[in-house]
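I have been asked to look over a protein record a colleague put together. The record follows directly below this note.
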Amino acid sequence: MRRFRCAGKRGILIPLTAVLTLGLAGCGSKTPLDPKNPVSLTVWHYYNGSQQVAFDALVETFNDTVGREKGIYVESYSQGSVADLEAAVRDAISGKVGADIMPDVFSSYADTAYEVEQAGALANLSDYLSQEELDRYVDSYIEEGSIAADGTLRIFPVAKSTEVMMINKTDWDVFAAATEVSLEDLETIEGVVATAQVYYEWTDSLTPDVPGDGKAFYGRDAMANYFIIGMQQLGVEIFHVENGEVTLNIPQEELFRLWENYYVPLVKGYFGAYGSFRSDDVKTGDLLAYTGSTTSAMYFPGQVELDSGSHAIDYIVKMPPVFQGGQNYAVQQGAGMVVSKSDQQHEYAAVEFLKWFTQAENNLQFGCVSGYLPVLKEANSVQKLDQVIADRGLEVSPKTYECLTIMLDSIADLTLYTNKSFKNGIEARKVLEYNLADLAAENRAVVEAAVKQGVELEEAAAPYVSQEAFTAWYTDFVQAMNTAVNK
């Protein structure tokens, strides 16, 4: 196909047929839209609660302003959870009986988008964005979305997150005063493990007539992140992807450090995982701290609810711990938006909406409710955040504001990382998410039952935390990973 180079676009190549259809839209002369006959777009997402309200409000604003002016009308629909959304997309692609037709735009993580791209169902967004426009976005976000074989953009970054550490300050202060632990101890993963042991032993000592009833201190959401980012901090890229082909890097020495700093403390009861999310465990008093997404800040409870009563708690937001001696990597996560391959008019209109949504003011307004980080370089500053809050008269939850400001202040010192997409990436990530966590929970139950029968904790845990136990797990883990990748 002949290609036409649009003047001033620094190498962005657009198919000649697209230029004719768009009326040279990419060069800024005309648009293919007619305000008298607006294009209707359907957007599927997984936002719920206040996030959905915030997104729908911005959609309404767009429809009443830029959309009305350009001839674009957006209708948004929550599909429930991420899993529900992915299932709805797969049903639509396969033409399953009773399934809705494919939406024009939908939220998608990179692994799911990669599957849809392999089916040839995604629009090439690079056809509608100049290099100058692309350069305004955080480079790693654009890189993550450039999943096509030719390196062109398929996932439009709309909102991103990383991880933070959230702590029940009220009960931490009591614990810290009694044991002389400090927040500085929580800067490394090894320090968190040591602190968790102190907390278990201290809480156990509070009821001397009931031995072995110490409480867990820490937990984490997203075990896959622990593996991917933990290994990256230790200098190992667990999924090395080139041209869509993945090479697994799962060396025994580094994996032992991950095993001994999550599995071992969980089996001994120093760490815990009980509810659907670790913020739930803080609410029930089962944990004092956790690592989770920046978007989880809004769910951090305002009180602990025990069988004996409840009490209000304050909070601390910290950067997540890093392996001792490790590099300062943090996870880059958060779904982007993809555009279904259709006709030039709908694809163009979809990109116009996404560009509007990611303007600094609009994106930060959404982030103030959702806890997501903005995607434009110019928007990633506390100064810009404060300006938008003042200009738009926004009311922001203190927890969300503190979470955003800590990240915006620290982001320049972090290396954000997400692995490139590859075939069977979803299956491989499931192994990371569940393989070790499920084994730890299973063995913790056995150890806990033995302790209740009067066996000392170290004796009860010994068979499950030995070198032999690690070797057995490592062998199983390597097999599971290779099976997932080579399906």
Remarks:
- Confidence is low (pLDDT under 50) at residues 1-29.
